[in-house]
Write a structure and sequence with these properties.
The chain is an alpha+beta fold and about 110 residues long. It contains four helices and three strands.
């Protein structure tokens, strides 16, 4: 016997008594102004998508963009040159760098 089980706002797919964790779904509820909803519905229609499909695709895309930006540090040309000079330097690590390395190692285990 297979089906979907709703528990605490989370939908779980199950088959033969086993829950398929890869297929877990969750519900997202929020309120927006009526005019904003109409605009989103219009945009979804123009894309040939339902409101839910459109919202999922836009939210997923924006989330990926925000996460990626948090992982990337952009430098100006001058900052890049300065960084490369420091990397290429043969100078011994100073006290601040040693402390930073120690904190990093403590966090990373």
């Amino acid at each position: 016997m297979c089906g979907r089980l709703a528990y605490n706002g989370v939908y779980l797919n199950y088959c033969r008594g086993r829950i398929d964790k890869a297929m877990q779904t969750a519900r997202l509820d929020f309120r927006i102004e009526a005019g904003t909803k109409r605009a989103i519905e219009q945009a979804a229609g123009l894309c040939g998508q339902t409101l839910s499909e459109f919202a999922k695709s836009v939210l997923t895309s924006k989330a990926a963009e925000v996460i990626q930006k948090s992982r990337v540090t952009e430098l100006t040309d001058e900052e890049w040159r300065r960084f490369m000079r420091i990397v290429d330097s043969t100078a011994a690590p100073n006290t601040k760098l040693k402390r930073a390395a120690k904190r990093y190692k403590a966090r990373r285990g």
